[in-house]
Batch of 3 targets.
Target 1
Amino acid sequence: MPVAASRGLKAWIWPRPPESTIWFAEFVVLGRLFFNVGSSTAGGSRMSADSAAVTRIVEAFAECWNRHDMNAFAELFAPDAEFVNVVGLWWKGRAEIKAAHEFTHQTLFKNSRLTLVELSTRFPTPQIAIARCRWRLVGHVTPQGIPLPERQGVLLNVLRQQDGKWFIIDSQNTDIIEGVASRPQ
Amino acid sequence: MPVAASRGLKAWIWPRPPESTIWFAEFVVLGRLFFNVGSSTAGGSRMSADSAAVTRIVEAFAECWNRHDMNAFAELFAPDAEFVNVVGLWWKGRAEIKAAHEFTHQTLFKNSRLTLVELSTRFPTPQIAIARCRWRLVGHVTPQGIPLPERQGVLLNVLRQQDGKWFIIDSQNTDIIEGVASRPQ
């Protein structure tokens, strides 16, 4: 696909690509974390506390990843949580999520570092949060141990509050592939 | 990555690949639609009616796609819905979701056909549904109009009930890439 055609296509598909891309890149380069927490159905101090709690859980996702502590990572998830990774592997339940990440953090992601940016959280009901962020990953390798270039993606976490505590009940992850509107051809 | 290594890796990552793959393939081949609707927090006839309503919305996603009716497609979404597509494009609001799909359904997906299989729906609260399914897509083309092979993926829809009606409030889509645990190297 020619670059010009690709850019024209992308401008149609994603009305704000240049600004978003630059803005995203700025935060990635500066290594800063930006959290934009909003609510579509509720407000007030209770919601602020919940927003802070949800933000802490999502931050912990990256913190556990970066110290490769899959015990702590798994505790962020509800027992019946589901997780779909960037190649469509669909894990059902905390045990599967933990086992899969334990394996990749002993291999592909052993020395990887995940940085989350541009977190946006919505509360469709007071007990449910939809938290989406972009991310960048560095330090990952092939199954043969060969270093790979930086990757970026979009991570969705759905969280539920239970007994005053927030847990991830669903995650789906998608790689960002620049310059195309659909899967690369 | 050698096939044997890939299979070994995948067996670790996804504890049920052979059965799931065969089972999935069977439904794809037969063109049948299988809906597995469960609930983690509630039951009874009210929930059955909600399960049926959510199933209809997810079925309508594919029906609108297949007749390339983006007006009807957009009406499935709440005004403030978000959508992340398979290459990480992040659309915010019904208008962006509609515009992006109008464009692709005039080009890449003009004659494409989407089939949803293995729908699984959970209700973390009575007003929220998490509906995930696998899908296959045929009949899509490159930006230059060249036919592309079948693709498969995993689609997550989060729905909210408002005034007795269910709307998609969030979608994230991920391509299935066989034989790898993470992005292909």
Target 2
Amino acid sequence: MSEKADILIVGGSAAGIAAAISSRRYYPESKIVVIRKNEKVMIPCGIPYIFGTLGEIDKNLIPDVVLTGKNIDLIIDEVTTIDKENKNVETLQGKKFEYDKLILATGSLPLEPPIPGCDLENAYVVKKEAPYLKKMQDSLNQAHDVVIIGGGFIGLEFADECKKKGIKNVTVVELLPKCLLLACDEEICNRVENKLKEKHIEIINNRRVQAITGNGKVQAVELDNGDKIKADVVIAGIGVNPNVELAEKTGLKCDTKMGVKVDEFMRTSHKDIFAVGDCSEKKCHLSGLPSNIRLASIATSEARTAAGNLFGLRRRNTCAIGIFCTMIGDLGVGSAGMTERTARDMGLDIVTGEFVKANRHPGCIPGAEEIGVKLIFERDTMVLIGGQVFGGTSVGEIINFIGALLQHKTRAYEIATFQVGTHPMLTASPIAYQIVNAAENAMTSNHS
Amino acid sequence: MSEKADILIVGGSAAGIAAAISSRRYYPESKIVVIRKNEKVMIPCGIPYIFGTLGEIDKNLIPDVVLTGKNIDLIIDEVTTIDKENKNVETLQGKKFEYDKLILATGSLPLEPPIPGCDLENAYVVKKEAPYLKKMQDSLNQAHDVVIIGGGFIGLEFADECKKKGIKNVTVVELLPKCLLLACDEEICNRVENKLKEKHIEIINNRRVQAITGNGKVQAVELDNGDKIKADVVIAGIGVNPNVELAEKTGLKCDTKMGVKVDEFMRTSHKDIFAVGDCSEKKCHLSGLPSNIRLASIATSEARTAAGNLFGLRRRNTCAIGIFCTMIGDLGVGSAGMTERTARDMGLDIVTGEFVKANRHPGCIPGAEEIGVKLIFERDTMVLIGGQVFGGTSVGEIINFIGALLQHKTRAYEIATFQVGTHPMLTASPIAYQIVNAAENAMTSNHS
């Protein structure tokens, strides 16, 4: 006997959960089933924080009640086959579920560096599975020398947390001239690197790791200039690949590197199957080009779009915008859309505007910190195509404000006369509000 | 001999300064002169914080270097007459300035309650003048019983600061059923009132002060039900009137209650004179109706609009949106646009959506606080017309994010699929981001 779900969701991380919650809001009476492989679900961007700030894997879980509390059935099992013509799935545990609509949210898999030694004990990539992370935690508990391959957000967060944990030597090896250079322009990367150095984290730029070496266990990494760095744990945070295995097996159109093919309503090549999150292909909101960016912010947006479209098309996917933020020590950094560097490399004619000021007014108010905003506009249209921010904890919301302006293709003159609420204890002054002033600086520099 | 300014700005508070800075950006070669009455300029919204947090008036000044550092001439003097036909002004100190374009930024004057006793010693309104505030500070330094008339933002901030200062009995008297009720809906007002009560601030709602009594000095206030409250200092924060005296004398079209008449380019009835900030008349962005809202956020936006238009029209005023935020104790509160109550009172058919969640994820991360968002949409169009937020210090930037969505007349379905950057240490999770979920809740409640 098989169970029948109106909506069946395969995968239970950020995209799967957001799809389920939105589906419940839209279809209060439907039977909604989520099937996921892992016993426990990690908060994906919380993983680095397990090792220092949180101290325990179990503190970084998405509680099942976000589903079960909304009358969504949660099954711990693995879907092995989808029969798309007869609209049913089979699982590893031999169960069968029929469905009316299916949402694939199978996520991504961490890339392993294409070098020897990745199979040594204490060489890790960043998987989202609790037992794997437990092993990693045990290794880090005894580590003195940690090498992190990749100076992107995850790599730097791991480095910061390893230091918080008290690990003596932490080294980040980054292929590009600066850490974070895919997300931020050089001046902001410099601020981040300075903060890492303050915390005695070693940064090696412009270098590729050629091998992880050791006798059974990790002992060192070897760089492309022949240098060797002592290591008892290596963590590679160099990106992910979409997990398209099940989709391919089902006969859905896929690109192994870019993901499951979807239309702007998030439908796959089969009309009753949608694909959302890290497993689906993306286009860049700003260039229209295929993009391999993978973020929970994009995943959950796609999930909500798919949920709205299940039984009648209502929402269009707005394509992927990279909106990131992080905290390195007490320095918050955020980026949205294109950097100045990416834009120029693409050949865009651009204008930038910057503004730095305290996040309180007067600046002598207790708790005041400097916040800086940089905005990037296309010269002819003065449409916003990117923004970056550094400062204290409010950068998380400031970058979302900038993200909203990007999604609206807002023009500099609109931003320059935006009305913004300000308060001595909460923001810069109305005269010196960073986003507004950065826009006006960009406008008037273009004008003269 | 008279001096000649290309741009002459009368008034040097938020609007005047923003107008001067924007003018300098637009016209790098112009001679720009600001004439202001006061020796020192207060940060207007910082005034309550002088008395507790800052401790000194001189810590709450806008430094003159924001002007002089940009090669803007600053004159401490008072413009007494404007000859608009011959384009010159005369000052109290007998100086004369010719101008090409003039910007009036004469601000507002605090309303005095229309009751007996306002002339008693230790009865204050909230003026922006340093010597007056010094006197107020001296009175508060010896006060045991302070009564504040008006439970709006300024009144409550004063109450909070008086407590921080250690004043024993602080009472707020508010005419409406709740404090902050013009800016927030009742459930948020309740949170604020509870926070005030936690701090042992007495709140008396639904009551009008009938008289301030005392023998030369304040001794009590009398309420409309006959109750008397002991007081050695009374502070009234009940609103402001535009300061149109100079504009009226100049023969510009004015409404004494609503301000100097301006077109959408911020021009007065004379083409070479602009008026911005608290002294100029306003229309509500959402209803199109005349509005007597007066905020620095509106003032600086108008100032930037006027500056852009001085020598050729380029920018239109987008009309006033109330975007407020404040901090009462450790509770941040923000509001933008219409409240549910105002909208219903106006006869609008609306839908609301709410969402409350921690501002970190997982919620057990150190420093996590609850943040709640309420959004208000017109039912038929699902256009956003208002939003409110409560929580920690990030409410200041969250309300600006909501303010930007308002200014763009954003629809619920767009907000529900917005991509928002999230980070464990900085925001709610992508699944539980408050603004997005509040929008989806509003949509789906309208849908079913």
Target 3
Amino acid sequence: MTWEFLGAGAGLLAIALAIHLYRYVTSQDSGTEKMRDIAKAIQGGARAYLRRQNLTLAAFLGIMAPVIGVLVGITHGTVYGVSIGIAYLIGAGCSTIAASLGMMAAVRANVRTANAARAGLKKAFPVAYYGGAIMGLAIVGLSLLGVSLIYFICRSGLGWTEVEAANIVLGFSFGASALALFAKAGGGIYTKTADISADLVGKVELGIPEDDPRNPAVIADNVGDNVGDVAGMGADLVDSYIAAIAAAMILGAELGGGILTVLPLLIAAMGLFASISGVFLVQVLMRGDPGAALNGGTFATSGIFIALLFAVTYTAGMSGNQWLGVFLPTLAGLGAGIVIGMTTDYFTSIDRKPTRRTAEAASKGAAINILTGFSYGLVSIVPSILGICVATLAAWKFAELFGVNPFYGISVSAVGMLSIVATIISADAFGPISDNARGIAEQGGLGKDVMEVVDQLDAQGNTSKAITKGFAIGAAALTVLALFAAYTHLVDIDLARGINLISYPVIIGLFIGAMMPPLFSALLILAVGRNAGRMVEEIRRQFREIPGLLQGQGRPDYKKCVDIATRGALRELLFPCSLAILVPIAVMLLLGREALAGCLAGSILTGIIFALFMANSGGAWDNAKKYVEAGALGGKGSDAHKAAVTGDTVGDPFKDTAGPSLNTMITVMSLVAEVFAPVLILLWR
Amino acid sequence: MTWEFLGAGAGLLAIALAIHLYRYVTSQDSGTEKMRDIAKAIQGGARAYLRRQNLTLAAFLGIMAPVIGVLVGITHGTVYGVSIGIAYLIGAGCSTIAASLGMMAAVRANVRTANAARAGLKKAFPVAYYGGAIMGLAIVGLSLLGVSLIYFICRSGLGWTEVEAANIVLGFSFGASALALFAKAGGGIYTKTADISADLVGKVELGIPEDDPRNPAVIADNVGDNVGDVAGMGADLVDSYIAAIAAAMILGAELGGGILTVLPLLIAAMGLFASISGVFLVQVLMRGDPGAALNGGTFATSGIFIALLFAVTYTAGMSGNQWLGVFLPTLAGLGAGIVIGMTTDYFTSIDRKPTRRTAEAASKGAAINILTGFSYGLVSIVPSILGICVATLAAWKFAELFGVNPFYGISVSAVGMLSIVATIISADAFGPISDNARGIAEQGGLGKDVMEVVDQLDAQGNTSKAITKGFAIGAAALTVLALFAAYTHLVDIDLARGINLISYPVIIGLFIGAMMPPLFSALLILAVGRNAGRMVEEIRRQFREIPGLLQGQGRPDYKKCVDIATRGALRELLFPCSLAILVPIAVMLLLGREALAGCLAGSILTGIIFALFMANSGGAWDNAKKYVEAGALGGKGSDAHKAAVTGDTVGDPFKDTAGPSLNTMITVMSLVAEVFAPVLILLWR
């Protein structure tokens, strides 16, 4: 039996299910005319955003693919070069198609969820959840199908070696990371541009409420939730997912091949089968509490996955107890994911000490509120980093103990953590759908009972989003460690001798790499500020020039705002993204492959730290504000509330722009190193 | 000729000059009765702080010295163990005596500067400058004298090997770092406790102006400037200074000894001679612009140092062109120091883009102001880190080129950067003296002309302080790299083989080390918040219970406030400091010496990044506020001003508590590793 067909089969099944769910969701009633109007505007904005993003991405790919193809072609032969260039395009294409589909599903599910909420929570929940599951199943399914087919074609069709075929998979992964960078960092700038400028002119200058249809930026703001949390997060997680598979396959191929090469595909297939079952189980488990259903679904998925994992590793035909050297590291990865998710929940939950203390600090003013949330964000890195350390240690030791190469152990632990990613993305995408549904229900005037239902969904959505953020960062950490191990193989570093930490290239590389994530964060935050400035001008212009707009008689030009936010976001992306691509190449050219290894290691360290701290500080400020708004410490309108709003505004680009983009940035840096370093070594020889 | 006598001679000369300057400063007239009253209260507060700090330090030393003595005694023999314990105590003692003397000089120079300002800038400047120079000369002189004598006694008196004697110097350095930790981190908590709580009750709740004598916390606030910027910064810089010398001596001794061992002492002696000349030149160069005089003094000192350095390295009797392998790395270190100082100046100067943009952002609200200053602080790490990288590369390559061990090259480049440290500390201590003088002149009602003079001094003092902060961080970076190189020698790691970056102990060590500086920062910031909470209670109590206090008739209990801030600061210090000491030991015990090397490397990376970013963000917010207060963007009382004040309050613990304590923390972690790791290795064998 050809193992890779299991991967392709799981992928196809997931895609079929996604299509089925899309039909289910779109067959639901989309409510009153007013609701449909709002939903149409959001859909139009989403389409406009996607069109421009995909055009820019196409231009970017149009440059990158030939560069990769030609460089690899010169050093490794034309056919191989062309193949990797094509794999790159397919990788970007699969992610883009799936992300676009997922986002269009989400902006259809939102209004239908709001409408279903009129019949109660039990009717509304499946619409929102299945709406999110479309994204999860489509993007993971299409990716796994792509990886499996590409590997099969290269091996069986073209008759290449396992190492060569696995490297073509790496090209596919690099393509997927291109979309992730655009969707996550560009989407992050977009969503906060819209959010901040809508608030600055609407709430602060004109005193009109949030989500008010008179505000020309309101649609851009609604679209932003979907851009950041549906397309962005999905692309980011799948980027890690494919990269982890590619790294493990390369290591497997380099370490002897055979079952070791296809095992990562196999583990991923089991994870996807488990996730597919999980999607059904969530609805079965739904007995009134959406949180319990979602958590139950995740635990059930994990349980099914562990059983399937046991089955495949045990029967994979490895010698002696070697299967335990794969099985246990995979479990360690899964466990680390759960620890990091729980930590994120603790540090950002509205019921826990960090958020409560941050809220109490708000009663002493905005500065103390900010300092407190900032500090708890920094403290929050401790359990997550210890989780990553324990997973690394466990993966290494278990692998070693049962005769498996420890680097391979680490890479399968990354695959293990990410195997249930379809479930995670589904739960995450549920967040913005519920959020949008709440907005539509409010604007559509659906009454108090309906609001209660959508509020409950929205609250659960926020928790899911927070947990997903932590999970995504932890997954990126393990993935980048796996890529790091694969890198050392690709550039022919003797693993027994290793890379000497106490040598100037490595020390300088570490410093430069460590500098990158903070710099990238700063550039993205400054970009949000600049872009919001442009958008503020446009909103003011519309209020000035469109007659009767403030009185509710004119119709604002929503499209123009969406367009400004989109164009600005994509333009601002250029410089930081170029840095992520060019710095590893420059380090390689100036200081060599050991320095580049140091640079990657440095970027992992500060990348994880800044990503965790920014995501969790932002989450704590956000929920501290919600805690005050729920009536604590004087409630809405109090000084504490004003201070908490300031904290929340500081946290917005932390948690939705800079923090989550760092995962993607460090993955991109690692992939650049893997794809270009072996080429540059040959060119310079 | 015995070279170490040059070090002792330079030390004695510096001490003699410090005593002379102390007499000069105290012989000046201390002004009106009102001024003397205020000054006396500050002096009393400073004494109270110093007494309690030194008592706590004594208790700490009383535990640490026997622990070190016994552990080293068991593994390396009783006499050696006792000696290192004594060296530890002497190191702590020298720094403590010098820091206490320097601080008492500063709190006498402040009022005399204010009085001299009545006769004009040219009369006031030398009082302030010499007042600061007492600190610089005393602490550097006493340290160099101590190091030279200890080395001489061990080598010539006890007849030990160079390696053994250099290790006793390391004990001395470890002792100095104990004071640095207390003065810098404890002092940092103290000064911001007083500052924030004085503002919260005085300015915000009661609406009385800053520095108002009715505020019970006003003296604690004035004392705080001296604690943080005189004692703290002096102790921190000297901590790096001695550590750099000790690391270079150890490496020199291990790499063959002879001139290599004593050369660091010699370079330091030349630097101190140059600094002594520089102190005189500053007054000669003072033609009306204090900034030009201070900068001129620093450049003159550097010039003299380079000439002396050339003389000693050229005549030191090294074979062939080897002297260039010491001379050029030393210059590279000095150059890096200047680059980092200039960067700090650019990113925090009131006339430059980062601060201006941060101020402009304040007109869009506190959140945008904070995000902008935060981002520029992150961007500011780039030139400094590149400076450190270039210095590392240059030191390594020049040393290698001329036949000197590259690690030795890096360690002398750290010594080179720190050689002119007496000049730097003098210019830095000038800052709080001028700041205090301004406060005393205002409270003493000395009139507009005098205020103009002290304002000019104060502005220059702020620039000096900012540049010193950058310099201190850069110096710590190179020092810790030198300590890192020495560490690998001390734990017998084969330098040719090195430490393998791609092994689980090193990767886990890197993660744990990298986690420490952000955690330490967060704990200190949270400590400031808690301590300020206690102090706010006390201020409120005094206003409630002391009759007529608000009306200016009662006398506040300044001492009580000083005491609360002091006790709280020292208590809050316990947990973060224990972490800095225990984490390296735990890593060593659980994961071994390679993991500890990774841990040190990780702590250097994020330590430097967080220190630079926090210091520079804090500086930018501070000056953005001053820019608005000078009349820009609506000036005092405008919304932009309120936003800028919020930014400044966030920045206060960044730049005065957490940021600058990180230098000390990473130095302490490295010294803990050096002192304990060789012992633990032997104990575990």
